[in-house]
Write a structure and sequence with these properties.
By secondary structure, the chain is an alpha/beta fold. Helices cover 48% and strands 11% of the residues. Strand 9 and strand 10 form a beta hairpin.
């Protein structure tokens, strides 16, 4: 989302004399809400739209050169237009739940900045804007309407123009004609014919904007057109214009803005006044906008006006404005590259980003490298560009064969390698793992970048759970700056071109901006880590894990494609057999994969109970519904569940995994996301190897395709019940802790404690129920949820849960204390100090609040388990090296690590890995329960697990 900036031609022309700014507040609210990521105050109140609006106000207050201003809002949806046409705007959805509480806060923001804040019952903001624009024009004032709303374009006139703050462009007569095909004075007539589906303005059926413009340009105006409708040659169009003439006239009354509203605030009082600094600062603190507070206070300390348009001043928390002067340089000569390398060495820190041919780092070709040493100055070094369109003066001898001028790739990397591997120069990257892997894959061992800081991981450590951590999102969040999008330079869909074909002038702006924003984020986020007490989390858990994951992704795991192909054929055969059986049970053939057709078969044709239709009119046929029907003894839904499971295994795994095998290595190289889960857990993608089913026989078979290279074995080492052990430790449940110390079956122990059954007399069903409770409690399971799991009534399940809490009161205490702490601070912490923010913990909606409370209970447990295995992963490679062992760590699947090990080193490697994993919490945390790591080996992952 772009900050509101005043167009230079307007400020120069007006110099503030007799100039009125009318800001369409309601339009900007929705744009800010949808443009910015989710943000929440510590009490759970959503604030992203407030943040975006406040940014705009700060910029407005600083930049405006006018003597009159107002921000104007809509009130309730019903206005005088609903008296004309009852269904006006009736099709609009209610505002999103997360936006509703922000409406009043945004109005508070406007008042805090001492800007007139206007609204009137019965009228839309557009009507007030039209009225003030007319009044100002009659007084000879110039008017700027700050909005992109097409409905306001009818007001554009001599002395009245618009400014779109999102696209940073002025809107005059030419832009109106481009939009509507007519001048501003005829926009109402065009809209009356075309209607507006957004506002439920009916118009005339079959006539769109283009046709409406042609008709109005030909006949002059709406009344003339309707009077002469019989002359229209096209029969259907003629018929509609005659039949719906009155509807067009009604539409005109709906779209024509009312410019004679008896406004309550006279134009003379809409004067520009300086805000009270203390009031503004109080509002920013109430909203907990830490960065805006820092910017505002920094400006105050320098004696200047507050500015949030592009970031804080030098010396404050962040960096200079990205909207200010920037100097981006295209590096095409060796001498220029050497100069940038010298600058990086002199600075001691350099931000680095790569441009490539693919999002898959193991298949990506390096296209270019960008660097930045200080905010506002960056360079782009093209290395693999080909001739694109409109290269212009950038064309020349590339040294890489035909193409634009650029330093030969090998020569450039040869110069960059000593810098990137220099331990005295810090390399700052965003999502460093990707760039490290791309650079490490080069010839002669590639470039092994070190040391590294990762701004994505810093943001994750500071505010995990509050928002995403992509570069574009963080640039928007911290600086109010909208980065150039990939689609802006490469296009999208069928017309998309590879980055290597992008003209170098466009490539420069796109690539250099990424490096520039990365260095700005580093200067903003790095100082926040020690202030928040989170530097240790970053330095011991996230930062050292980056090279570990890079090595794992580069190593990949060998997969036998023939095993997968054979399984796929078997699944195909079984799917065909199941389809025959399903159609026989249904009494007719239908598309089994169509929820709509399945619902009609189950609930209309067969008359099974429990059919519920959704908004689309189709029956819901999710897994829970089918499972309920199957449990009642109905064969068809049971067979459909079998069909769905096999179909998913085939499409998602046996077919897709063959395609995922890298043709150069014969291995699958998954990518790990370090910031995908708020609790600290890693997630796997492209392909996801963490979700391969292991509870079904068919799912387990898929792991037989993951094999060791000849002369090696796969070693799987898995933490045993780590989350239950952490529950016992964190909640301080002495009987559970003792059971773990004594090596007793924890589920049998729980069953014995809760149900009063001696261990020697424990039966499988009672143990299974206790196991469901043990794991369910961690995730805040309800009586209804537990009842579904163990096949009993909710009332019986509730008694089980109550008995559990009665026997282990520490669990209940832990849950209550954790929820209370989350409500107070907005986050919970793991035993290693990681913060997991819980934004909905104070939500007014009971369902969402309950979901957040369950997340708060689970996060310290799941997060602590994630931290334990991360600590182990960081220590394992050095431990293996110290022992002279050649094993490679290949995969992490939640609590399990998978290694490829020379057969002769299996025993020793197992010993080292188990020792490291079982002592991973030390010396930071001394657990009151032992960690146990179980190990298995085999020729395949299935055998080892």
């Amino acid at each position: 989302m772009t900050d509101l900036a005043i167009p230079e031609d307007q400020t120069a022309a007006s110099n503030g004399d007799n100039h009125l700014y009318l800001v369409d507040g309601s339009g900007y609210i929705f744009r800010a809400f949808h443009a910015l990521p989710s943000m929440n105050r510590s009490d759970g109140t959503p604030t992203n739209a407030v943040f975006g609006f406040t940014n705009m106000l700060l910029k407005l207050v600083e930049d405006i050169e006018a003597d009159h201003v107002a921000v104007i809002f809509d009130t309730k949806r019903l206005t005088f237009r609903n008296e004309i046409f009852a269904d006006y705007k009736a099709n609009r959805d209610e505002p999103p739940e997360d936006l509703r509480p922000q409406f009043s806060l945004i109005r508070d923001a406007v008042r805090a900045f001492n800007v007139p804040c206007l609204e009137m019952e019965g009228y839309e903001a557009d009507d007030l804007i039209a009225t003030y624009a007319r009044q100002a024009k009659e007084k000879g004032m110039r008017v700027t309407i700050v909005s992109s709303d097409k409905d306001l374009m009818q007001l554009v006139d001599d002395g009245v123009d618009m400014y779109d703050p999102m696209k940073n462009r002025a809107i005059g007569r030419d832009e109106v004609f481009e939009k509507f095909g007519v001048g501003p004075e005829k926009v109402v007539d065009v809209q009356s014919l075309a209607g507006d589906s957004v506002d439920n303005v009916p118009g005339v059926p079959g006539i769109g904007i283009k046709t409406a413009a042609q008709l109005i340009n030909e006949y002059g105006d709406l009344d003339t057109l309707l009077a002469r409708a019989e002359e229209i040659k096209q029969p259907k169009r003629r018929q509609n214009l005659i039949e719906f003439a009155e509807q067009a006239r009604i539409s005109r009354e709906l779209v024509r803005l009312k410019d004679d509203v008896s406004v309550e605030e006279p134009l003379e009082r809409l004067t520009v006044e300086d805000p009270d600094d203390a009031t503004v600062l109080s509002f920013l603190k109430e909203m907990e906008f830490k960065r805006l507070i820092a910017r505002f206070e920094a400006e105050l300390s320098d004696g200047g006006a507050a500015s949030a348009g592009g970031g804080p001043v030098e010396g404050s928390v962040g960096s200079p404005s990205p909207e200010g002067d920037v100097a981006y340089e295209l590096v095409q000569e060796i001498a220029d590259l050497e100069r940038w390398i010298a600058l990086a060495r002199a600075e001691g820190t350099v931000a680095v980003d790569t441009e490539t041919s693919s999002l898959n780092a193991m298949r990506a070709e390096l296209v270019g490298v960008s660097m930045s040493v200080v905010p506002g100055k960056a360079c782009y070094i093209p290395l693999g560009h080909t001739d694109g369109e409109a290269q212009g003066s950038l064309l020349g001898d590339s040294g890489n064969g035909d193409g634009p001028k650029q330093i030969p790739r090998d020569k450039a990397l040869g110069l960059l390698k000593p810098l990137f591997e220099d331990p005295s120069v810090l390399k700052v990257l965003h999502n460093a793992k990707y760039d490290l892997l791309v650079l490490a894959r080069g010839a002669n061992g590639g470039v092994n970048v070190t040391p590294v800081d990762d701004t994505m991981c810093m943001s994750y450590v500071l505010e995990g759970g509050l928002h995403g951590h992509g570069l574009d999102e963080l640039s928007e969040l911290h600086f109010g700056h909208t980065n150039i999008k990939f689609a802006d330079v490469c296009g999208k869909g069928k017309t998309q071109i590879p980055f290597s074909a992008v003209a170098l002038d466009k490539a420069l702006d796109y690539a250099a901006e990424d490096a520039d924003m990365t260095v700005r984020l580093h200067r903003t986020l790095r100082p926040e880590l020690p202030k928040a007490g989170l530097l240790t989390v970053y330095e011991t858990l996230e930062r050292p894990l980056i090279p570990v994951l890079t090595r794992m992704e580069k190593a990949g795991i060998k997969v036998d494609p023939q095993i997968l192909r054979d399984m796929s054929k078997d699944f195909e055969k079984r799917l065909d057999e199941l389809a025959v059986e399903i159609h026989k049970l249904a009494g007719e053939e239908f598309n089994i994969g169509s929820p709509k057709q399945l619902g009609e078969i189950l609930f209309d044709r067969m008359g099974l109970p429990g059919g519920k239709k959704g908004k689309t009119g189709a029956y819901a046929t999710g897994a829970e519904i089918l499972e309920d029907l199957a449990a009642q003894g109905h064969d068809l839904p049971a067979r459909v569940l079998d069909w769905r499971q096999l179909s998913k295994l085939k499409s998602t795994y046996t077919d897709a995994l063959v395609e995922a095998i890298n043709p150069e290595t014969g291995r699958i190289h998954t990518s790990y996301s370090m910031t995908g889960a708020s609790t600290g857990r890693l997630s796997s993608n492209d392909p996801n190897l963490q979700n391969i089913p292991i509870r079904s026989e068919e799912g387990r078979k898929i792991r037989t395709a993951f094999v060791a290279e000849p002369g090696n074995k796969l070693l799987a080492v898995d933490y045993s019940q780590i989350e239950l052990r952490l529950v016992a430790h964190i909640a301080n449940i002495e009987s559970l802790k003792q059971a773990f110390r004594d090596g007793i079956d924890i589920h049998a122990q729980t069953a014995s404690e809760v149900f009063g059954v001696p261990l020697a007399e424990m039966d499988p069903i009672t143990r299974r129920n206790a196991k469901a409770i043990n794991f369910g409690i961690i995730y805040g399971i309800s009586a209804f949820g537990l009842a579904r799991q163990i096949g009993t009534e909710p009332g019986v399940a509730k008694k089980y849960i109550d008995a559990y809490f009665e026997r282990f009161p520490g669990i209940r205490d832990y849950m209550n204390e954790t929820k209370a702490a989350a409500r107070e601070t907005g986050y919970v912490t793991t035993i290693f100090g990681r913060r997991v923010h819980i934004p909905g913990i104070k939500d007014n909606n009971p369902a969402r609040r309950a979901f957040s409370e369950r997340a708060a209970i689970n996060a310290p447990i799941q997060g602590s388990a994630a931290d334990v295995i991360k600590r182990a992963m960081v220590r394992i490679n050095p431990a293996l090296a110290d022992a002279g062992l050649a094993a490679k760590m290949l995969l992490q699947v939640h609590d399990e690590l998978l290694f490829e090990v020379p057969e002769a080193e299996i025993e020793k490697t197992t010993e080292v890995v188990r020792r490291v994993m079982e002592s991973a919490a030390e010396p930071v945390v001394e657990l009151s329960v032992p960690l146990v790591a179980d190990a298995g080996t085999g020729d395949s992952w299935a055998e080892a697990h």
